[in-house]
User: What shape does this take?
Amino acid sequence: MPEKLKSLLDEQVERAGLLPPALDVITAAGDRRLQRRRLTISAGGLAVVLVLAGGVFAIQHRDSGRSPEPARQGLGPYAEPRPTWAVGSALHYGDLVIDFGRQVDAFVRTGAGFVAVSSGEVWSVDDDGATGVGRVSQGAPQPVTDGEVGLAAWTEGESPDREVVVLDQRSRRVERYAEGEDAEVLGIDSRWVYWRTAAGVVSLELDTGEEDLQVRGDPARAIAASSAEIARTVDHGLRLVEGGTSTLLRGAGTELMSFAPDSRWAVSSTGAGRPVVHDLHTGRVIEVDLDGWEFGLGQGWLDQRHLLVGARRAGGDGTVELLECQIPRGVCAPVASISPTEQATYGYALPWRTPGEAG
Assistant: This one.
C-alpha cells in the first residue's frame, strides 16, 4: 500500500478514537476475502474501507434520508434494501463498495451477494470473492433476482438452444432448466422461477421441481412475472393474468414491467421511458413527482414502498441520478449520482433492464 494512503487512513482513525485496522496484515494475506473497516470521518459521514486482493477503497457515506432497516435474520449479509449501482468494476451497495476487478456490464443483488455480468461471463460476487458461474445470452444479458433469498437466474446460450440457469448463491449450487426449449427467463419470486418458451409462460417451484404452464401461447408478449400475476403486453397497454382471470391495466406503458416484492404495486415504462406506477388493488395510476427529469434508464423496486429510477436532469450536464421514490406518496429524491466523466471513463450499470433491451 502507498505510504501516503496508509498515513491518511491512520490519521482518520486516530481522530475518530478507534484502533487502526491492521492494513499491512490484511493486504499481505492476499486471499481475495473481503474485509470491512468502518471509520468515522465526521458526525454526518462514514467511510468504508474494503480490501480485496490487496486493493484498498474508501468512499463517503451517501445518506438516503431514510433510516436503514435492521438486517433480517437468515436472509444474508446483503438482504437489507439499499440503493445499488456499478461504476467500472466497482459495485456500490449504499455506503459499501466492492471492486471485483472486472468491468460490470449488468448485475443484481441477491441478498447473499451480487451476480455480475462482465463481457458475457456471469460471476458470483460475495464476501469470499468472485467465482465464474456461466455466460448470458447475447439477447438477454440482464440476470434476475428477488433480492432476498440468495437466488439469481439468467438466460444462457443462443436461440434456438437457450436455457434458464439458476444460482443459489448461499449454497453455490447451479441448476439448469428448460434445456432444449429455447427459453428466456422472466423473473424469480421467492422459490419460484418463471420463463417464456414457444408454448407460453412456465413457472417452476424450485423445491419440488414442479412445472406449470401459466399462460399459453404468444410468449413474446409476456414481459414480467411474479407469484401473484404475469404481465403481458396488449394493443392498448398491459394485461395482468392471474390464474384463470385477466385484467387490463389501463394507462400502462408497454416497454418494461416489474412488480414490487409484495405485488401490491407495479411499474411500467412508456415509450419515452417515463415510469408509470400502478396500484394493483385498485387499478389506479399513482402520481409520481418526476417533472424536470429525462428517462430511458429503467427502474426497479428497492422494497415494497420504494422505487428506484434512473434519470438525467432535463437540460443538465448528463449526470445520471438514481432517484428513490416513496410509493404511494410519489415523492422522489436523488440518492446517488454518476458523473459524465465516470460514465465516459469507466462506464456504469444499474440493476435492471433498460427500455428496449431484450428479455
Summary: The chain has three helices and 32 strands. The CA atoms of residues 73 and 79 lie 9 Å apart. Residues 3-16 form the longest helix (14 residues). Confidence is low (pLDDT under 50) at residues 4-73.
